[in-house]
Amino acid sequence: MSFLGEGTLTRRRYAVGAYSSTGGWAAGPSTESTFMGSLQPLAGRDRQVLPEGVRASASRKIYCLQGTLRTDDQHSGVSADEVIDAQGRIYTVIHVDDAHPLLPHERVYLQRKREEAS
Predicted confidence band at 28 (pLDDT cuts at 50, 70, 90)? Predict the structure, then answer.
C-alpha cells in the first residue's frame, strides 16, 4: 500500500537505555534504517488531540505502515524513534495512532528536535 506523497525517510532507533552513575538517563546505541512514509504538516484538528504543552511544538505527522515507528515506553526503558527527513531535519515521535479499522497504517505525530539536543 502506498500513501499520497510517500517518500523515503530515515528512522533512528535507540536500544534500551539505562541510568548512568551520575543519575542521568543515557539512551542506548542507535541504529538507522530507511522506510517509506508520507510526511505532512499538522492540521488544526490534529493539534487538538495532543496534550496542551505539546500542541504548539508538534510540527509534522507521518503516515506509514503499522509497526514502523514507536514512542517512549518508560516501563521497558525504550526511547522514542527519531525520523530524519530529506533535508536532514530531525523529529522525535510523540504519538502513534493506529486505530483505523480498514487500513493497516499508523498516523504518527512528530516534534522537531531542538538543535542543542542533537
Answer: confident
10 Å CB burial of residue 69 (0-12, 13-18, 19+) is buried
- pLDDT over 90 for what percent of the chain? 32
| CA–CA dist 63, 3 (Å, integer) | 7
What type of residue sits at position 18?
A
Which residues, in sequence order, are CB contacts of 5 under 8 Å at separation 6+?
Answer: 38, 39, 40
The H or E element spanning position 54 is helix 52-55
Q: If phi over 0 gives left and psi between -120 and 50 gives alpha, with beta otherwise, what is residue 74?
A: alpha
